[in-house]
Amino acid sequence: MKKLFRRGIVATSAGLALLFSQTGTAAACPAVGYAERTVTTADGSTFHLSLIAGFTTLPASGGRSVVEGAGYNTAQGIFLAFCAIPSTVKVGDPATYTALPTPCLPGHATKDGSSRRITNTATGTPGITLPYGPNGSFVTTLDNLRPQIADGVVCDVTVQCAIVTRADFTATGDRSYDQYIPVHFQR
Question: Could you tell me the pTM of the whole model?
Answer without folding.
Answer: 0.84
